[in-house]
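Example: Ferredoxin.
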Amino acid sequence: MTYVVTEACIKCKYMDCVEVCPVDCFYEGENMLIIHPDECIDCGVCEPECPPEAIVPDTDPQAETWLELNREYSDNKWPNITRKGEAPADADTFRGQEGKYEKYFSANPGNTDG
Ligand code: SF4
Ligand code: SF4
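Written out as structure tokens, the predicted fold is:
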């Protein structure tokens, strides 16, 4: 069991989730975060902290599509993130938009933890 970050995070990246995760299992891309499925302890505390409701349990029907992306990029592609960085200035503009993966997904890694 794990929680999964969906495309609702793309370009919203508020990073409130990072602060609350007890096992630091978030990983950072250029414009979204993901969860390492093998490190998540399924505690659920991050889910209500996410403003655009991008985090879902893997029992949610939406999760299946995004689980593979979370696994692929957290496994050696993107760096671990342990502290909250600054949200993008235009984050609210992208909140709730449909089809963000096709329009904006970036495979580049993020660098908040330096
Ligand atoms: S709080 Fe939600 S939108 Fe923000 S970085 Fe975490 S998963 Fe993404
Ligand atoms: S469910 Fe718990 S362990 Fe998993 S990512 Fe969220 S806060 Fe971290």
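The domain at 3-87 is CATH 3.30.70.20 (Alpha-Beta Plaits).
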